[in-house]
Amino acid sequence: MIAVNGNFRARDGRRDQLVETVRSLGQRHAAGAARHDLDGTVHRALLDDLCAAGYHAAPIERWHGGGSHRLVDIVMAQAALAEYDAATALGIGMHLMVVGTESWAKTWPEWRRQQVLRSVAEQNALLNVLATEPMTGAPQGRTPPATALWPNGNGGWRLHGEKTYSTFAPVLTQAIVFCSIGDHSGDVGRVLVRMDDPAIAIEHTWDTVGMRATASHTVHFAGVPVSDADLLARAPFSRRASRPAMGPWFALPVAAAYLGIARASRDEAVLAARRPRAGQTEAAANETRRAHRRDRTATLRRRSHPRLSRGGSRR
């Protein structure tokens, strides 16, 4: 059972349907995951089917065209998807972080929130927060971002800088960029930019085995025009302001993706243990399986009892 707002609910029909839909799509496209990892390309066939099923808009309220799903629903669906394609689960998880957080927290100007969320639900727009930089890494509150908005002299701004680990960069419609405000205020902000702007370039730097299909490349901003209306938030630089992506909608869907990886690894290990080795008799194969089961049981017991895992004894 799962705790939701203090209430324990054993089953939820809408959640079960979402999880089953995502699992079915993952199974259908599972054969393509390894190919896209080798190619370093986003698994568009799976991503397109997920969007067609409304998964990308699942956390958005119904009146904006979404599914009004809760965080717990997304977490369970993410784990199911990652069993078949972990890179796609992680990539769309970053998008779900953005729309889920804003649907829950409502920090943007109302007109902008309605515009962006409707573009997701009706036009399959995809978003991500771009915050990590090559010199400073992920925002930690020590140094303001080098990427900055500079006044253009005509009442607008120009965005200059670069961001690394930009998950799903080639397929993003818009990005929320964490940046400094270059007006001597000491402020930082989050600015919404369209990824098809000609002043934006994607450098293909990402080459991590097993996660190549997240396409988490480096994005360069060379004077991207920005208006005041594109500035979603600004605040004095501080540790709190420097972590724009931290929150439950970031941590839990990402953790769920790794849970899915663990489940798939477990299942593959069980299948491997059941296969007789070359030249092994059936009786020997059965003994090997029993040994694997005993080892797994002992491991689970140690993890359930911290004192045993430290070499202590139960009394």
Question: What does the model show?
Answer:
The protein has 315 residues and is α+β, with helices and mostly antiparallel strands. It has 2 domains: 2-124 and 248-263, Butyryl-Coa Dehydrogenase, subunit A, domain 1 (Orthogonal Bundle); 129-236, Butyryl-CoA Dehydrogenase, subunit A, domain 2. Helix content is 43%, strand content 19%. Strands 3, 4, 5, 6, 7, 8, 9 and 10 form an 8-stranded mixed sheet that branches. Strands 1-2 form a two-stranded antiparallel ribbon. Helix 1 runs parallel beside helix 4 (71-82), helix 4 packs antiparallel against helix 5 and helix 5 runs antiparallel to helix 7 (248-274). The two termini are 31 Å apart.
Radius of gyration: 23 Å
Order of helices and strands: EEHHHHHHEEEEEEEEHHH
> Biggest sheet: strands, sense, closure?
8 strands, mixed
Based on Cα principal axes, name the global outline. elongated
What structural category arises from helix and sheet content?
A: alpha+beta
Strand content: 15-25%
Helix content: 40-55%
- The name of the CATH architecture of the largest domain is Orthogonal Bundle
What is the number of independent domains? 2
Integer average pLDDT: 87
User: Ends: how far apart?
Assistant: 31 Å
Point out poorly predicted stretches. Answer: 1-8, 306-315
CATH superfamily of the largest domain: Acyl-CoA dehydrogenase/oxidase, N-terminal domain
Output the CATH topology of the largest domain: Butyryl-Coa Dehydrogenase, subunit A, domain 1
Q: How many helical stretches? A: 9
Extended strand count: 10
Q: What is the CATH class name of the largest domain?
A: Mainly Alpha
